[in-house]
């Protein structure tokens, strides 16, 4: 059975084609989803890609949260469907309250683009099972509003429940609280992160192929289920 993973395209999405390519390389079938369409076309999982959805007006991800497709994504995510939000997709997940906290302007107020080392803190999610806990990976990072923030009670809960999925190593590129680069929901099916694993799936174009594990993790989990 082929695993169908949908990739949503919003107005202003930049990395939707990269995400579809990563899914294909991982052995899945990428399915293009349009922001105005509530129908998910029988996909098994969804990726919300990076970019500047709706021009990032109001707040990053704030308008995308109310798009027709997100109404269905939110329902299916709450029912257990694996959902991955990358960069702007992470912002959309926070605005949708599928993940806690918010993403704010980088503390140095500049756009950052670099190859970023990360430590895998949670290898038990739908998107990280092909990694090992404590494994260090390198994938590209590019954002202007990537600082993860939440109140202390939320941060303490994320730590205590093992819901911090990735941390920045060597340098905190955007002022994220507690060096958090990515988190998951309580069920482990929804993951959001700022760095871009879809840009690190081929040796020809990426700094590494370390990002491929996100997509092979989802494909294997869905096949097994």
Textual characterization of the structure:
The model has no long low-confidence stretch (mean pLDDT 95). The protein has five helices and eleven strands; from the N terminus they run βαββαβαββββαβββα. The protein has helices spanning 16-25, 68-78, 88-95, 152-160, 212-224; strands at residues 4-9, 29-34, 45-48, 83-86, 102-104, 112-120, 136-143, 147-149, 164-168, 180-184, 190-193. It has 225 residues and is α/β, with parallel strands linked by helices. It is globular. The strands form two sheets. Strands 2-1-3-4-11-10-9-6-7 form a nine-stranded mixed beta sheet, with helices on both faces. Strands 5-8 form a two-stranded antiparallel ribbon.
Write the SSE topology.
Elements (H helix, E strand, L loop, with lengths): L3 E6 L6 H10 L3 E6 L10 E4 L19 H11 L4 E4 L1 H8 L6 E3 L7 E9 L15 E8 L3 E3 L2 H9 L3 E5 L11 E5 L5 E4 L18 H13 L1
Parallel strand pairs: 1-2, 1-3, 3-4, 4-11
Antiparallel strand pairs: 5-8, 6-7, 6-9, 9-10, 10-11
Q: What structural class do the secondary elements suggest?
A: alpha/beta
Mean pLDDT: 95
Helix content: 10-25%
Q: Give me the strand/helix succession.
A: EHEEHEHEEEEHEEEH
Outline type: globular
Tally of contiguous helical segments:
5
**Order of the strands making up the biggest sheet:** 2-1-3-4-11-10-9-6-7
- Beta-strand content estimate: 25-35%
Biggest pleated-sheet summary: 9 strands, mixed
Distance between the termini: 11 Å
Which residues form runs of ≥5 with pLDDT under 50?
none
């Amino acid at each position: 059975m082929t695993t169908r993973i949908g990739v949503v395209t919003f107005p202003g999405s930049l990395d939707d084609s990269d995400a579809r390519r990563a899914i294909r390389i991982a052995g899945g079938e990428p399915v293009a989803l349009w922001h105005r369409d509530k129908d998910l076309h029988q996909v098994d999982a969804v990726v919300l890609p990076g970019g500047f959805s709706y021009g990032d007006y109001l707040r990053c991800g704030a308008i995308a949260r109310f798009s027709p497709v997100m109404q269905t994504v939110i329902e299916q995510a709450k029912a257990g469907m694996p959902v991955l939000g990358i960069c702007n997709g992470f912002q959309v997940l926070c605005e949708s309250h599928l993940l806690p906290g918010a993403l704010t302007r980088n503390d140095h107020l500049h756009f950052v683009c670099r190859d970023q080392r990360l430590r895998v803190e949670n290898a038990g999610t739908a998107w990280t099972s092909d990694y090992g806990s404590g494994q260090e990976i390198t994938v590209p990072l590019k954002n202007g509003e990537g600082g993860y923030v939440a109140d202390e009670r939320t941060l303490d809960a994320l730590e205590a429940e093992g819901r911090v999925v990735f941390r920045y190593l060597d340098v905190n590129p955007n002022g994220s609280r507690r060096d958090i680069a990515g988190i998951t929901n309580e069920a482990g099916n929804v993951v959001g992160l700022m760095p871009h694993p879809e840009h690190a799936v081929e040796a020809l174009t990426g700094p590494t192929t370390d990002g491929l594990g996100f997509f092979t993790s989802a494909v294997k989990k869905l096949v097994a289920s």
